[in-house]
Amino acid sequence: MTDEPTSLDEIKRLLRQGQKIQAIKVLREASGIGLKEAKEQVEAIQAKMVADGEELPKMTGCAGAMILFAAGLGMLGAWMIS
Fold first, then answer.
1. How many CB atoms are located within 10 Å of the residue 59 CB?
2. What single DSSP character describes residue 59?
3. What is the pLDDT of residues 3-48, one digit of tens each?
4. With 0-12 CB in 10 A as exposed, 13-18 as middle and 19+ as buried, what is 64?
């Protein structure tokens, strides 16, 4: 990373806000690495933050929406069967 301290601070701030995808984008822009590598590094930073005792948001964005959608499909399927 060319501007490591600033980028790391920004990545941690984004992770604290539950914006993992944006954190990956920031890392990619700062370092020029590929998507897979950036995702792995952001996940490592996230794991270190949790190991250090920080509580980070869980299930935001698409994951929460997907669970609600799956629950709705399950209810629809149960209704159709009965």
1. 11
2. S
3. 456 789 999 999 999 999 999 999 999 999 999 999 999 999 999 9
4. exposed
For the chain, give percent helix, strand, coil, nearest 5: 75, 0, 25
Report the sign of the C-alpha dihedral through residues 38, 49, 9, 14, in that order: positive
- Listed by start position, the domains of the chain span 4-81
Residue closest to 44 by CA, chosen among 61, 66, 62, 33: 33
The sign one gets for the Cα dihedral 49, 12, 59, 31 is negative
pTM flag (> 0.90): no
Paired tokens of 64 = 């929460």
> Tokens for 7?
């980028």
Give 70: exposed, middle or buried? Use CB within 10 Å, 0-12, 13-18, 19+.
Answer: exposed
